[in-house]
Amino acid sequence: MITIFKTGEHGLMTRIPAPEKGCWVSAVAPTREEQIWLEEELGVVPEFVRAALDPEETSYIDQDEEKEQVLVIADYPARDPDTVSEIPTFMTLPVGVVLMKGCIVTIAGEENEPVTELESGRVKVNTTQKTRLLLLLLLTISQRFILCLRQIDRLSNQTEARLYKSMKNRELLHMLQLDKSLVYFSSSLKADELTLNHIMRGKLIPHYTEDTDLLEDVIIEFRQAVEMCSNYSELNSRTMDGFSNVISNNMNDIMKELTVITLVMSIPNMVYGFYGMNVSDLPFPVTWFPLVLSAVLCIAVWLYFKHSRTFK
């Protein structure tokens, strides 16, 4: 779907039927016909359109000097629709921003929160200020990352609380899924931060004095998101290692108990095997003696292991 916006004289952004100078063209999950319209009618470089719609594309900045267009691709967080467990998992998808003569174009393969928030008007947008619109989109993406990271931290704490009560495979798998989401976030945030550093240099995208505070806010938000992702990932890894050690210790305790039971239960077999031999002159060849001897030896061995430091 393609939607065209333009900021009027009174500072209000409204939809318009056709592209004009100073407009913002938003393409969300465009069809093949809409992609052709972007390339042929609007003049967007075809490689830029394909790159923005590639779900595996990572964040970067590119320029086409011939057509004087700049492409900025940024990764934003989204829920994985293929999640089968009760714990939501997250992924990252690209959104492309093309700065060209006369207008700015955003291209996304799926409907997403950052672009939707700008389209809704909750954030004041001036479509004639292309650099500022790009920075507002990056700011919205960084805030979305922080929101998802806090949600992951809350889910991790809930799963950890359940692990203290019962260490089941389900909770451990949930922790692994959250850790997987953090890995995706960490990779995308580092790529977004590199792209932001390229924007800061001002070689491809012009800077304006009125956008200085906004640029600083974007930098601070992304650094905070990177730090949060790093901390949560480390905490999650340490938690997994801690519970793995607990499970290993529990397994060792179970093996010790089974070893003691096996040794104690093997004593009657040895005693009755000895008295079952077809030989003469066995000591105390009476029916009750092997039974009493087995019971005494079993109790003695059990008491030894019970008071032994090795098996405590």
What characteristics describe this protein?
2 domains; single chain; 7 strands; seven-stranded mixed sheet; 312 residues; alpha+beta; Beta Polymerase, domain 2
Please explain how this structure is put together.
- One of its GO terms (molecular function) is metal ion transmembrane transporter activity.
- The protein is an alpha+beta fold.
- The protein folds into two domains: 247 residues, 2-Layer Sandwich (Beta Polymerase, domain 2), CATH 3.30.460.20; 56 residues, no CATH class.
- It contains seven helices and seven strands.
- A seven-stranded mixed β-sheet has the order 2-1-3-7-6-5-4, sandwiched between helices.
- The radius of gyration is 33 Å and the shape is rod-shaped.
- The mean pLDDT is 83.
| Large-scale geometry | rod-shaped
The third-level CATH topology of the largest domain is Beta Polymerase, domain 2
Main sheet? Answer: 7 strands, mixed
| The top level CATH class name of the largest domain | Alpha Beta
Tell me the CATH architecture of the largest domain. Answer: 2-Layer Sandwich
What structural class is derived from the secondary structure elements? alpha+beta
Which strand order spans the largest sheet, edge to edge or round the barrel? 2-1-3-7-6-5-4
Q: How much of the sequence is in beta strands?
A: 15-25%
Instruction: Specify Rg, calculated over alpha carbons.
Output: 33 Å
**Considering the protein shown, what is the CATH homologous superfamily of the largest domain?**
CorA soluble domain-like
Order of helices and strands: EEEHHEEEEHHHHH
Q: Return residue spans where pLDDT drops below 50 for at least 5 consecutive residues.
A: none
Alpha-carbon distance between the two ends: 69 Å
Number of domains: 2
Task: Enumerate how many helices there are, as a single number.
Answer: 7
Write down the overall mean pLDDT.
83
User: In percent, how helical is the residue content?
Assistant: 55-70%
Number of beta-strand segments: 7
GO molecular function: metal ion transmembrane transporter activity
Organism: Faecalibaculum rodentium
Keywords: Membrane, Transmembrane, Transmembrane helix
Protein name: Magnesium transporter
